[in-house]
Design brief:
The chain contains 15 helices and 16 strands. β12 and β13 form a beta hairpin. The protein is about 40% helix and about 15% strand. The strands form four sheets. The protein has an eight-stranded mixed beta sheet, with helices on both faces. A four-stranded antiparallel beta sheet has the order 12-13-16-15. A two-stranded antiparallel sheet has the order 1-2. The termini are far apart. α7 crosses α11, α9 runs parallel beside α10 and α13 packs parallel to α15. The model has no long low-confidence stretch (mean pLDDT about 95). The site of pyridoxal-5'-phosphate has 13 residues, from α7.
């Protein structure tokens, strides 16, 4: 009976709402009780139903109002397919590393470190201090805050041998994360339809940025010791490419670092062909067993475009990186940045500079090294014990990932899905190849998840591999 009354009042009020303008106030509950001869409970129930279906909103102490947003009608975006045409890029829109995992799932897919690996106290204090400076209310110069530019330049200069002219503060352009720097560099220095050498496998975001910029990718195989310099030289010669995007240190995904001789030989090839080496030093602060020595520190004639990010070591929320470039290349990248976003938030730059100039920053990095080592080794040991069919080719001396090869012929997509149904999220290696994958790989990140769950993760992976046979 009460339900019948609620249904009746709800239906009547729906009609009233359909005719009322957005924002109109519903009669009070007392008035509705009198109007429909109903109890307070019945009226409240009807109003709650209308609220749950989004037709009205209650503002406590004020009343109930017709919502400005009308109930969603079915929408059809089909017309956009004709307007947009076929997709330019073959890459799927969102990488599997950016998926949000279910709260109870074990996530080894994401590329960003867990909170306990970040200098949380330094970051919070720096943000509070930055909020009290002029940076909170003023526009930053296009190239970045001069003090932060100087810090980035000095970091690179710190590893330069004697006799090499070190970069000036002006050469370091502050960028909101190195992902957007990649897009700018590919647009400004390579251009649509032009060839770009790229390691294979390599960072999926670089492949995506290059494809979005219309660049033609020329994959160069890169194994545990990086690329073969002879192959790099040949690729430059055959394609006429003017750029090589590479990660000589702690590469994502393989973890490999180039031997010093490879670095020097690649630099020579780059110079011989009048080209740029786009050196992505993404994991500079994520060293474990070796100290990073960027090739950019050996270059003073503008052949190396150097990328250094702080988003994984300071905070993903501060999102600050830098490009170090010299000569006209610097001007072109800066012009692209101006077209893209004009300048980087001075507040974020000031907070970042505050963090990296605190004495505690250095001790944080020392502690981080130990934590990354423990995590890396635990995940590796767990795989050996519970998923022996998974083969890790390189023990990464830095970075955040294990690059693991599955038994020959394994359907990587099936393994990823099978793990997903068992509560483990991993990234298929396919995304890191600019062309066909050279084998069945997966990438396992040891920095984002609670290491206590690594044995379970390895067990799930081992079981999934057995299940799909
Ligand atoms: C090799 C490499 N380059 C660039 C980036 C982008 O980093 P960010 O935009 O956070 O600086 C990443 C992120 O994982 C990466 O692995």
């Amino acid at each position: 009976m009460a339900n019948d009354s609620t249904d009746r009042i709800t239906a009547e009020l729906r009609k009233w709402i359909a005719a009322a303008p957005p924002g109109a106030q519903l009669p009070s509950n007392r008035a509705l009780m009198a109007q429909y001869g109903a109890s307070p409970v019945t009226v409240q129930k009807a109003v709650r139903r209308l609220s749950a279906s989004g037709l009205v909103e209650s503002r406590p102490g004020v009343g109930t109002f017709v919502r400005a947003v009308r109930p969603a009608r079915p929408v059809d975006y089909g017309w956009q397919t004709a307007a947009l045409g076929a997709r330019q890029s073959r890459t799927q829109l969102l990488s599997s590393t950016q998926r949000t995992a279910a709260p109870d799932a074990i996530g080894l897919h994401s590329g960003y470190p867990a909170r306990e690996l970040l200098p949380e106290r330094l970051v919070r204090a720096a943000i509070a201090r930055a909020a009290r400076t002029d940076a909170a209310l003023t526009r930053s110069p296009a190239g970045g805050l001069p003090e932060l530019q100087a810090w980035f330049a000095a970091e690179l200069a710190g590893t330069a041998p004697a006799g090499v002219r070190t970069p000036s503060a002006r050469d370091a352009l502050v960028i909101p994360g190195s992902q957007s720097a990649l897009s700018s560099i590919f647009r400004a220095l390579i251009g649509p339809g032009q060839p770009l050498l790229i390691e294979s496998p390599t960072y999926w975001g670089a492949i995506l940025a290059a494809e979005q910029a219309g660049v033609t990718l020329v994959p160069v195989p890169a194994g545990a010791a990086g690329p073969d310099p002879g192959e790099v030289d040949r690729a430059f010669r055959v394609t006429g490419a003017r750029g090589f995007y590479a990660q000589p240190i702690f590469a994502n995904p393989t973890g490999a670092s180039w031997p010093a001789g490879t670095g020097r030989a690649v630099l020579e090839a780059v110079r011989r062909h009048g080209a740029f080496l786009i050196e992505d030093d993404w994991a500079h602060d994520l060293a474990i067993d070796a100290d990073p020595h960027p090739l950019a520190a050996l270059d003073d004639d503008g052949h190396v475009i150097y990328l250094r990010s702080l988003t994984k070591s300071v905070s993903p929320a501060l999102r600050v990186a830098a490009v170090v470039a010299r000569g006209p290349a610097r001007e072109r990248i800066l012009a692209d940045r101006a077209a893209e976003s004009m300048y980087v938030s001075g507040l974020l730059q000031a907070a970042t500079l505050d963090v990296v100039t605190q004495p505690a920053w250095r001790s944080h990095l020392r502690g981080l090294r130990q934590q990354l080592r423990a995590r890396r080794d635990l995940l590796l040991a767990s795989l050996r014990e519970h998923a022996p069919a998974v083969h890790v080719e390189t023990l990464p001396p830095g970075g955040l990932n294990l690059w693991a090869r599955l038994p020959e012929g394994t359907d990587v997509g099936r393994v990823v899905r099978e793990c997903g149904t068992r509560g483990l999220v991993i990234a298929p290696g396919t995304e890191w190849f600019p062309a066909e994958p050279s084998g069945p790989y997966i990438r396992l990140n040891y920095s984002g998840e609670d290491p206590g769950r690594f044995p379970d993760a390895a067990r799930i992976l081992g079981d999934a591999l057995e299940a799909i046979g």
